[in-house]
Specification:
It contains 9 helices and 14 strands. The chain is an alpha/beta fold.
């Protein structure tokens, strides 16, 4: 049985798209959101996503996120320098600027004064990244290291009281770096900076929309499934519900969902799930009351981790038993959080 991951489809054919390489920042998802708010498609991948896949994805711009590590650490997440050979604009944010400097011949050192919170940033308004913005504005900092020397071919385009190289650029190569976080609301001109990067530097066009994305994904589901049948594990939560609705809009009654009541749900939750999916959404639903099985499996188990594993194992058993009763199913659909994939 093949697997459909409804949250995992990508738009490889889309021309205007930005790749975000995640170095562990708490704000990575926010970077993606800010870009999509500008009607440009963005996709997050791990920092060590193979270069061949990056090349095949063919982004029109790349953003290196922040992260909790220090580039000076022995096991610090690194940078595949072949990324710079793609010839697309690159923006390094926080850890990202230090990563670029460290790998390109600059110098990064522990700061004598760590910066966490607001800082006053002085921009060079002649830089395309800050064109049309105020010379001085508040930005949000979160770093323990700082640049002491910038790489050859780079220029300084901004500073703060504690960070002399708060923003740098290699304009001819369209490589930029900022020590602060433009994606957070505390950075006063952050959205405008991102817009300058997307539209003035990278030359992207604001053509993407969620409506167009959904239509594209539904078409991809139809092509992949064909005349086949899909089984979707349904919990009633947001992730599996969105996956089920998207697939149902694409292939209708070729989708059949399985909902398992494990006896540990909130009061009347199982009833509400059944009423919603059968009555409102008109989706084929197989509801399994397995409360006694789960409670029996958990009898005498007190360790939280042991309980978690017991519930997971029993769920798989019940789900497989029900799935075998659905004839002709070729695909298994799964809805999950973006970070999980």
């Amino acid at each position: 049985m093949s697997t459909l991951h409804a949250s995992r489809f990508t738009l490889h054919a889309l021309m205007n798209k930005v790749l975000i390489l995640d170095y562990g920042s708490q704000y990575t998802q926010l970077i993606a959101r800010r870009i999509r708010e500008q009607h440009v498609y963005s996709e997050i991948q791990a920092f060590n996503w193979p270069y061949e896949k990056i090349r095949d994805f063919a982004p029109q711009a790349v953003i290196l996120s922040g992260g909790p590590a220090s580039v000076l650490g022995k096991e610090a997440p690194g940078l595949d320098l072949r990324l710079l050979e793609l010839g697309v604009p690159i923006l390094g944010i926080c850890y990202g600027i230090q990563l670029l400097a460290h790998h390109l011949g600059g110098k990064v050192s522990p700061s004598t004064k760590r910066e966490y919170g607001r800082a006053l940033f002085q921009a060079d308004p002649s830089s395309p990244l800050f064109r049309g913005l105020k010379r001085e504005s508040s930005v949000w900092m979160s770093h323990g290291d700082r640049l002491e020397k910038i790489p050859e071919g780079f220029i300084k385009i901004g500073e703060s009281d504690n960070t002399p190289y708060c923003a740098i650029a290699a304009p001819e190569r369209r490589i930029y770096g900022v020590q602060f976080h433009p994606e957070v609301v505390h950075t006063e001109e952050g959205v405008s900076m991102l817009r300058n990067f997307l539209f003035d530097i990278a030359g992207l066009k604001p053509e993407w929309s969620m409506a167009a994305f959904l239509q594209t994904e539904k078409e991809k589901i139809r092509r992949q499934v064909g005349a086949g049948k899909v089984i979707c594990g349904l919990s009633g939560g947001v992730d599996s519900t969105v996956a089920a609705l998207l697939i149902h809009e694409a292939i209708g009654d070729q989708l059949e969902c399985i909902f398992i009541d494990n006896g540990l749900l909130r009061k009347d939750e199982a009833k509400k799930v059944e009423e919603t999916f059968r009555g409102h959404f008109k989706i084929k639903l197989h509801a399994v009351d397995a409360a006694e099985r789960f409670l029996k499996r958990l009898q005498g188990v007190s360790d939280p981790e042991a309980k978690r594993k017991a519930i997971g194992q029993e769920f798989i058993c019940v789900f497989e038993e029900m799935a075998h009763q659905i004839q002709g199913a070729e695909f298994l659909a799964q809805g999950t959080l973006y970070p999980d994939v």
